Recover the amino acids of this structure.
């Protein structure tokens, strides 16, 4: 009986660690905005280094977050 309990505890600890790993790897809202911006930047054909495009994407993501925080929830 004790062996079964220890195995169950071990299984739950493994499951907990996996769930924590999954939570830590989810994209943030900033990451999601950057992904959307990067798609547009790439599609626009702007000439830049890959790092420059990523920097620009996060610049726009930060700008989107700033405007979102300033405007709050708008009802349209």
């Amino acid at each position: 009986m004790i062996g079964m309990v220890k195995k169950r505890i071990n299984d739950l600890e493994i499951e907990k660690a996996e769930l924590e790993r999954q939570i830590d790897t989810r994209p943030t809202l900033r990451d999601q905005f950057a992904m959307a911006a990067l798609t547009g930047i790439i599609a626009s054909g702007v000439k830049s280094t890959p790092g420059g495009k990523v920097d620009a994407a996060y610049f726009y993501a930060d700008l989107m977050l700033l405007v979102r925080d300033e405007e709050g929830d708008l009802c349209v």
